[in-house]
Amino acid sequence: TPDFSQIYLRPSVRYEAAPWLRVHGGLAWFHTFFPDSDDADEVRPWIGARIVGPSPGGWTIQNYLRLELRVFEFGGDVGGETAWRARWQLQARSPDFRIGSAERFYAVFFGELFHTFDDDVEGFAAERLRLNAGLGRTFSRSWRAELNGTFQHSRVDEGLTGFGLDEGILRLRFFYTIN
Predict the structure, then answer these.
(1) DSSP for 13-65?
(2) What is the mean pLDDT of residues 78-106?
(3) Fewest Cβ atoms closer than 10 Å to its Cβ: which of 1, 74, 75, 80?
């Protein structure tokens, strides 16, 4: 957007503890470039659990719960903030299908709700809702990739940054599962 641009790195690890339970953790770094003010950084360690099942009609329903610590550094005289945030995602994944002669594709859809436990940080950067639709392909038991289109409704304090936003995000994700 003309208001800002952002880069981020977000490595994570998933472990399949049982066929119905995946444990997830990682560390993210976000750097936001603002055209008329100091840039901002966020470091975000997190842990999560994905509960898999049931599978009505071959579609797999998944619940994902995540707790993350958000550490912001706004630069200049603004300083920093820290807050805990919880996330809950309800996901549906289709049975595998073919596209032409290529096999093992799937569709994925989810909605995600967020809750920030600190009112000060919530006024700055609080995603309320995220909706996603994507296409994935499984390459092996361990490797898969997804191309996702995401709509994210965010609330940003107008007094601090001068803008509010809703985001449309296109992202390519790669997954490796340790088993």
Answers:
(1) EEEEEETTEEEEEEEEEEEEE-TTS--EEEEEEEEEEEEE---GGGPEEEEEE
(2) 93
(3) 1
